[in-house]
Design brief:
By secondary structure, this protein is an alpha+beta fold. The protein contains six helices and 16 strands. It has a single domain (2-262), classed as Endonuclease/exonuclease/phosphatase (Deoxyribonuclease I, Chain A, 4-Layer Sandwich), CATH 3.60.10.10. It has helices at residues 11-16, 20-27, 83-89, 129-148, 182-193, 200-203, and strands at 2-7, 31-35, 52-56, 66-70, 76-79, 92-93, 96-97, 104-108, 113-118, 153-158, 196-198, 212-213, 225-226, 229-234, 241-246, 258-262. Strand 8 (104-108) and strand 9 form a beta hairpin. The protein is globular, with a radius of gyration of 17 Å. The relative contact order is 0.16.
Length: 264
């Protein structure tokens, strides 16, 4: 089983650059998880006849959104969190309602759950840090822990945070910046402490491996980047995970794809 995850920063844009289909042809994933699709299904030019498509699009046009393309039809697909989690964590602020932004999809398969997530950004001046760290992160964790009680969980997507200092090129310069604050990093700590593995770190322990680069000052060419796109998995799956990779040479977005390969 191979899963590919990619924040495409607009599915129509990456398709128009003729960079989406070649990636799928080369990687041949069983499941594709996309974030920041910025489109509804009827607006997407992508045509993958071997895959069933499931979309969770934002109510706001051209914004956010997630999608799952799967060769195997899931047993069930759900969008967002449960009503009880939404109510418990009050996922709304002055910038909008996170439950209306198409940020989470959960696909159930016979042997595992797959959670595709586009975590909200805390914004440049940290205006959304409280909502993200105090509301979203614990809501997401509770969602995944509930699933994990039933069967193992694989979660992937753009988590909008670098976990440790080796996960970004300039940690000292970004201690108080969105994506590397203590609160955001603690959100990932909480995932790991709850029994979920950062699968990339099972195989690669050094720095210099990033999945997002700023569009300014030639950051990508100089590899001044951040690792903010992940595959986490229940620790009960550890022996089944055979590979976890970042594909930095794939262009078309400010993010690159990440993949995981495991045995069912």
């Amino acid at each position: 089983m191979k899963i590919l995850s990619w924040n495409v920063n607009g599915i129509r844009s990456v398709h128009d650059k003729n960079l989406f289909q070649p990636l799928i042809d080369e990687q041949k994933p069983d499941i594709i998880c996309l974030q920041e699709t910025k489109a509804h299904q009827h607006q997407s030019p992508v045509d993958l006849p071997d895959y069933d498509e499931y979309w969770n699009s934002a109510q706001r046009p051209g914004y956010s959104g997630t999608a799952i393309f799967s060769k195997e039809k899931p047993l069930n697909i759900s969008f967002g969190f449960s009503p009880s989690i939404n109510k418990k964590y009050e996922l709304t602020d002055g910038f909008g309602d996170l439950t209306a932004e198409g940020r989470v999809m959960t696909a159930e398969y016979p042997d595992f759950y797959l959670v595709n997530v586009y975590t909200p950004n805390s914004k440049r001046s940290l205006e959304r840090l409280d909502l993200r760290s105090g509301h979203w992160d614990p809501a997401f964790l509770e969602h995944c822990k509930k699933l994990n009680k039933k069967k193992p969980v694989v979660m992937c997507g753009d988590f909008n945070a670098a976990h440790t200092e080796i996960d970004l090129a300039r940690p000292k310069d970004n201690k108080k910046n969105a994506g590397f604050t203590e609160l955001e990093r603690a959100g990932i700590d909480n995932l790991i402490n709850s029994g979920f593995i950062d699968t990339f770190r099972m195989f690669t322990h050094d720095g210099g491996h990033y999945s997002w680069w700023s569009n300014f000052a030639g950051s990508r060419a100089r590899n001044i980047g951040w690792r903010i796109d992940y595959f986490f998995a229940s620790d009960t799956l550890k022996s089944k995970i055979k590979k976890a990779e970042i594909l930095p040479d794939v262009m078309g977005s400010d993010h690159c794809p990440v993949t995981i390969t495991f045995e069912l």
